[in-house]
Amino acid sequence: MTTSRLWHGFTDMSTVRHRAPFTITRGQGAYLFDAEGRRYLDASAGLWFCNVGHGRAEIAEAAQRQMSRMAAYSTFGDYTNEPAEQLAARLAELSPTDGASVFFTSGGSDSIDSAIKLVRRFWLALGLPDRRVILSRENAYHGGHIGSTGIGGIALDREGFGELITDTARVAWDSAEDLEKTITSLGAERVAAFVMEPVIAAGGCLFPPQGYLQAVAEICRRHGIVLIADEVVTGFGRSGDWFASRRFGVVPDIIVCAKGLTSGYMPLGALIVGDRIAQPFYDGTAGPFFHGYTYSGHAGAAAVALATMDIIEREALAQNALSLETRLPDLMSPLTDHPMVQEVRTGQGLMAAVELNPQALRVTPGLPMAVVASMREAGVLTRSLVGGQIQFSPPLIIGNSQATEFVDAVLTGLNTIPPQ
Ligand code: PLP
Description:
By secondary structure, the protein is an alpha/beta fold. The chain is built from 17 helices and 14 strands. It has helices spanning 13-16, 45-48, 57-70, 82-94, 108-125, 146-150, 155-158, 176-186, 212-223, 244-247, 275-282, 299-314, 317-331, 333-336, 358-363, 367-377, 400-416, and strands at residues 24-28, 31-34, 39-42, 101-105, 133-137, 168-171, 191-196, 226-230, 254-257, 269-273, 341-346, 352-356, 380-381, 390-392. It has a 7-stranded mixed beta sheet, with helices on both faces. A 4-stranded mixed beta sheet has the order 1-2-3-13. The longest helix has 18 residues, at 108-125.
């Protein structure tokens, strides 16, 4: 075996470097295939991104068509390209925010850091330089850059890097009252923005309490605080609509997206910026926002996003997620009686997680990893989340049988773990 030179993200390399690598060679629909041709259900859509499923030739053809003409050129100054223009118009149209403008990046972390810089620059331009604090929620994951790590709500992610970003504060993930209290104690005049995932994804698949999204939107509006919805996971059909914000009647000032925007066929992120924030930059009163990326408005990536959105629309994938949302509690019910299962979390769209029983986790701390490994043996790929929950967020093209395949694999996993 040749030594792999690939350093894996989110991975303790000391645990994998002596193992034979697990190579995925092909994907088709909701399934992936390894080098030996074994088939696996993709129960996590990669890292929550592959909404339209794998192996879509029409997306590859759209990339080929665009990239053989012109893969990319900068979009600084007055330079532009057709796919970036079309995509910006389409995202602005879908956004619940009136008169939105779209700023492109290369992924979710880029987009969150861009949003932090944009809102601070916005308040500075309005003559309010002290309005700098970025509020976020405990348990939230917003990315791996210095800024997005710094506002993240998973303590372990922030450890060991020194001070990442100043002027931040976190609020309880499930309490609009705590947001209000924190704003009052800091002083609203110091708070620039509140960043929130409509459903906390990597932090444990945590669905907001009923009315939470509307309540925090109202609090932000009342205090003039910029509301940033991190829809990197919940966007593009995952939550049963193009955006969770749209579904729940919330109008954020900025929607951050990535992942499902291209279903992972190309790295791409975007900020959909409402008129309130964009206007001072467009009318010249704020001066320029000197920020951007080499690949902002990448033509090939934009063509891929347009082809992906065509599929989501044509195949009514958001509606499929919505319809599965109502069926998931039943489909996953065989898990609820298992003694090692605390809760099967379902709620919005095609996002779910199996929370293991704290007693079982105490007795067997490696239980989630062992279940995930056993599921792979049984032909289902997924991962465990921060609190040990087993993630279920497959491509949006699935039906009942794939949900059952997942449930059976979790049961097999739980039943093959030797009691300690
Ligand atoms: N925001 C959320 C909610 C995410 O789940 C992620 C990634 O998992 C990010 C931001 C960061 O996105 P990326 O990994 O594309 O930089």
